[in-house]
Amino acid sequence: MSGNRKKAAMYAAAAGCMWGTIGLFVNVVSGYGIRSLELTVSRMVIAAAILGICFLIRGRNLFRVRAGDLIWLGVAGILCLLFFNVSYGIAIERSSMSAAAVLLYTSPVFVTLIAVPVLKEKLSSRKLVAVLLAITGCAFVSGIMSGKVTFPADAFLWGMGAALGYAMYSIVAGVLLKRYHPLTVLFYAFLTAAAAGCFLADMKHMVYSISQYPQLGVVLVVSACVCNIFSYLSYNTALKYMEAGRVSVIASIEPAVASFLGVAVLGESMDFYGASGVICILGAIVVLNR
Known about the structure:
The chain has helices spanning about 5-20, 20-30, 35-60, 70-95, 95-105, 105-120, 125-140, 155-175, 180-195, 205-210, 215-240, 245-250, 255-265, 270-290. It is mostly helical. Helix 3 crosses helix 9. The longest helix is centred in the C-terminal third of the chain and has 28 residues, at about 215-240. The radius of gyration is 18 Å and the shape is globular.
C-alpha cells in the first residue's frame, strides 16, 4: 500500500472513531431536553461559523468556488448531510439506536455500487468481502443477530434513507474534492445544511437552553469540533486519496468504537455478538489494507 493510501486509511479510521463519540454527546445534551435534530443542526451551525472565521483569518481563498458548483455543494449539504442526519434521527426515534445504526451501515453497499459508474472505481472481490464483513459486524454490534432489535416498516425506510444520504455524500464529496480543498467542501456543506436545518429544528429552544445552561454551549462547541469539523475533515481527506468504497468500509469502525465507549464510559455491557461484530469490522479493515 502506498504512503497516501496508508494515510487515507488512517484518516478514514480516525473519522469513524470520532463519529463513535456522538452517542456520548447525545447522552449529555439529552439531559438538557435537547432533541437529536436540534443537536445536529446546532453542530452544523457552529462548525460552519468556526470554519468561516478561520477562513477569514488564515485563508480567504478557501471561500472561492465556481458559481456552477454551488448547486453541488448545496446538494452535499442539504440532500446528503442534512437528509442523512434527519433520517437517522427519525429512524432512532421510531425504532432504536441499534436498529438505526445497522441500517445506516448498509451504506458501504450503496457507496461501492454507485462509485463504479460515477467515480470509475473497480469492484474487486476483496472490496466485496470487506463490505460483507463490515455490514455483518455492524449487525452483530447492533444486537439484531441476537433478536434484540426489530424494524418497524417506517423506521426501516428512514434508516435506508439515512444510508443512502450518507452514501451519496461520499460520492458527491468525492467529485468535489477533485476541485477543492477538503475544508472548502466542508464549509459550504455545513453552511447549506445549517441554513436548511434551521427551518426544521427548534433553534429558539436551543438558544434559550444555552442561555440557561452556559455549559451546554461548551459541550456543543466541543461536539461540533470533534463530530463535525475534525471527523469530516478526516473523512474528506481520506476520500481525496482513496476510493470512496474503501473509505466507507473503514469508517464503519464507528459502531465498534461506540460499543467500546458505551462499555468503558456509560457502563453498558458487551455480549458475545457485540464482540464478534467488533472483530468482523476490524477484519474488514484488515482485508482492505492488505
